[in-house]
């Protein structure tokens, strides 16, 4: 009984490490991410591709209201997996950071700088009593100094840079597909096709209408959402 009580204390308090060095609430936040539909980020020779599977539970729901890809600045976008409300909170913080940087320094904010500020905010919620970690992971992609860059963040506040990555449901299988088929000289169109095929391989019910795509071109450094018809043209 005493052992169960101690385990429950480690389980409920975000500020207490378990004897084996684990923070259970952070691990539960990662489980929330795994339950979310998949989002992917792919760097290509022409820019960055962000994709997200929008699972609509009923035909009565307007699919356009299911938002998983966000614009942060003209040259930066993000895709989330996990609790969408948590993602919106973090995205609002990043948008303000990007605006303040432009107003203060008259230049666009760097992609890695955005990611570091995002992870600083996420990490704060892993060491304060009375709060919970953000139940979301975010892929941030954009153009920095003329080069496409993609980062993946974790509820713990850690981040890593990738050439192609996935978060959410079946992310391990999607990454395996990327390892097999990814090439450095992909075009944006080939990047969209690779992202869609990798997600479709582990989600048979996906359609182009349920796959949200945005990309940031290296040449123009502009974020653009693709319409469902454009996505269908790429994947078919």
Concise account of the structure shown:
With 236 residues, this protein is of the alpha+beta class. It has seven helices and ten strands. The protein has helices at 2-12, 24-35, 84-105, 111-124, 171-181, 188-202, 228-235, and strands at 39-44, 47-53, 69-73, 76-82, 136-144, 147-153, 159-162, 164-167, 211-217, 223-225.
Please tell me about this protein's structure.
This protein has 7 helices and 10 strands. With 236 residues, the protein is an alpha+beta fold. The strands form 2 sheets. Strands 8-1-2-9-10 form a 5-stranded antiparallel β-sheet. A 5-stranded antiparallel β-sheet has the order 3-4-5-6-7. Helix 3 packs across helix 4 and helix 5 packs across helix 6. It is globular, with a radius of gyration of 18 Å. The mean pLDDT is 91.
Secondary structure layout:
Elements: H1 2-12, H2 24-35, E1 39-44, E2 47-53, E3 69-73, E4 76-82, H3 84-105, H4 111-124, E5 136-144, E6 147-153, E7 159-162, E8 164-167, H5 171-181, H6 188-202, E9 211-217, E10 223-225, H7 228-235
Antiparallel strand pairs: 1-2, 1-8, 2-9, 3-4, 4-5, 5-6, 6-7, 9-10
